[in-house]
Each structure stands twice: as structure tokens, then as C-alpha cells.
Specification:
Strand order of the largest sheet: 1-2-3-6-5-4
Largest sheet: 6 strands, antiparallel, barrel
Structural class: alpha+beta
Radius of gyration: 15 Å
Number of strands: 6
Number of helices: 3
Order of helices and strands: HEEEHEEHE
Strand content: 35-45%
CATH superfamily: Electron Transport, Fmn-binding Protein, Chain A
Helix content: 10-25%
Shape: globular
CATH class: Mainly Beta
């Protein structure tokens, strides 16, 4: 196993659109699979308003995000884990950040979603 360079990590993050956001619920981890967008500085994803992940992040902003892939035989694989703080985006700030993401990278979910920024 080798460590990826920053450029390799950013390219890998930009290549994928699906990952796992991990929050903290009490003293235990809680994870959900989500679609995401990125802009080389932040990851943008969402969860159901009032849902379990939204409650986790409201109580504890510490979060991690994992993206991984492998070949069918699992002989070659890549993974990136981003650790940081999650922040709920609202109002004008949400609109300006989301409009800054490439339109081909961001597709709004068809279900109600609370947008989160992981920095």
C-alpha cells in the first residue's frame, strides 16, 4: 500500500460521485451512502432533513467521508478518507456554493435533502 499524492486524491474525488459520509451518534459512528459534488476544497452532500445523519451532524460536526473502488478481483484498489467538520448550508450561501459547482458534477437528489459541506 502506498499513500496517494494530493493531486491523485483530488483527481480520484473528482472522478467519483458516490461515497460514504460518517458521522458520530453519541459515542458510535453512523454512516450513509450519498451522492456528492466537490470543488477541490470542499465536499458537498446531503441527507434527509431531520433524518438520523442530520441529527448526528447537528449534535457533533465531526465527520469523515470515504470514497473507494477496486478491480473485480480486489487486487488493485484505491480509497480516500476525508476527515473534517460538517456544516449545514442554508439560504444564499447554499445557493452560491452550489452554483459554483460544475453543473455536470452536481445533480439535485429527487428526495428532500439537507445540504452539507465537509471541510
Amino acid at each position: 500500500m502506498r499513500e496517494m499524492s494530493r493531486k491523485e486524491m483530488l483527481d480520484f474525488i473528482a472522478e467519483w460521485r458516490w461515497g460514504t459520509v460518517i458521522g458520530v451518534e453519541g459515542d458510535r459512528p453512523y454512516a450513509i451512502e450519498v451522492a456528492y459534488a466537490s470543488d477541490d476544497a470542499y465536499l458537498y452532500c446531503g441527507s434527509r432533513p431531520g433524518g438520523r445523519m442530520a441529527q448526528c451532524i447537528k449534535a457533533n460536526a465531526n465527520a469523515a467521508f470515504k470514497i473507494c473502488d477496486s478491480d473485480p478481483e480486489h487486487r488493485k484498489w484505491r480509497a480516500v478518507i476525508v476527515e473534517g467538520k460538517a456544516e449545514r448550508l442554508t439560504g444564499k450561501r447554499m445557493c452560491s456554493i452550489l452554483s459554483g459547482c460544475s453543473r455536470k458534477r452536481w445533480e439535485a437528489p429527487s428526495i428532500p435533502s439537507t445540504p452539507w459541506l465537509i471541510k
